[in-house]
Amino acid sequence: MTWGHGGPGGPTPFGVRLAAAVGSRSALCVGIDPHAATLAAWGLGRDEAGLTAFGATLVDAAAGRAAVVKPQIAFFEAAGVPGYRALDATIRRARDAGLLVVADVKRGDIGSTGDDYALAWLDRDGPFAADAMTVSPYLGYGSLAGTVAVAREHGAGVFVLAATSNPEARVLQTAVLAEGPRAGRTVAAGIVVDVADDNRTTADQALGDIGLVLGATLDLGDFGITADEIGSAPVLAPGFGAQGARIEDLRPLYGSRAEQVLVNESRGLLVDGPDGVTALVADRADRIAAALGTAA
Ligand SMILES: O=C(O)c1cc(=O)[nH]c(=O)n1[C@@H]1O[C@H](COP(=O)(O)O)[C@@H](O)[C@H]1O
Fold it and tell me: Where are the domains of the chain?
């Protein structure tokens, strides 16, 4: 689905486009993570040609099967300017294939700086024109207000880190807030409630434009997060495959919000080499449908 016009003069909101993409394909989010070791194993250089070829393999496998691709910008940035040219080619190829692109950039800064990060990644006429980006709320959720506004203006979305899949995050994200409107909640649950509040302005949408990152390796209850409080936020769920989470556990992990989850897998799709990616993507899409009880 391309950027159309949702209302008078406005672009179609990200949440609406995401729901359509998931409905017509699957809730799979194909990670595009060109680790140095994988590039070497595939006989590709960590240069513009190698990264472009890697991106093309993942995009072509995802096309028609996944709703979203998520390029991990770290691996492109590591190759400098040629890496960014490869990223640009990868994003364009994904868009041409009808895939939504979540730029995994994990940005977050004081408001006046954050707004330009948002324009860089989400402006429809900007340099990258992704459909959504990942952001960190640890300068305060309020620091993301400008980012949220830019995203909405451009029919784009953001995914806010709340409970991340890495074990060392737990001590910070389960800490209890001492003051403010979310006092008594964990840091992670406070973010969940903030995002749910932002999505109330688009109550007519099944999926909001502001998403949450809630890792699949976690018990959300340990973070003080309830499924109800997630509201209409789309959930980006990394941790499947290489980090140990299982697609079969989608419902136990996310309960009544399982239908809102984007199942991300990155390294797990690479284990059979470039010729094996398409079959693994198809397998994951089938397993998501089976886990949700929507298999044909
Ligand atoms: O924002 C993310 O995508 C993210 C958040 C998180 O909590 N954990 C996490 O692993 N990720 C990213 O998701 C991808 C997971 O990769 P695999 O473990 O190889 O499937 C990497 O690109 C991570 O940077």
Answer: 14-291
Q: Three-state SS across 114-149?
A: HHHHHHHHHCCCCCCCCCEEEECCCCCHHHHHHHHH
Task: Give the distance (Å) from ligand 1 centre to CA of residue 238.
Answer: 5
Q: How far apart are CA 47 and CA 57, in angstroms?
A: 16
Q: Would you call 33 exposed, middle or buried from its count of C-beta atoms within 10 A (0-12, 13-18, 19+)? A: buried
CATH code for the domain defined by 14-291: 3.20.20.70
CA 8 / ligand 1 centre spacing (Å) = 37
Residue 139's nearest CA partner among 161, 169, 116 is: 161
Whether residue 232 is predicted with pLDDT greater than 60 in this model: the reply is yes
Length of the chain equals 296
- The reported pLDDT for the residue numbered 294 is 84
Pocket of ligand 1 (CB under 6 A): 31, 33, 72, 104, 134, 164-166, 213, 215, 238, 241-243, 264-268
pLDDT score, position 295: 74
Per-residue pLDDT for 46 more than 60? yes
Residue (of 18, 30, 11, 16) closest to 125 by Cα position: 11
pLDDT at 5 over 50: no
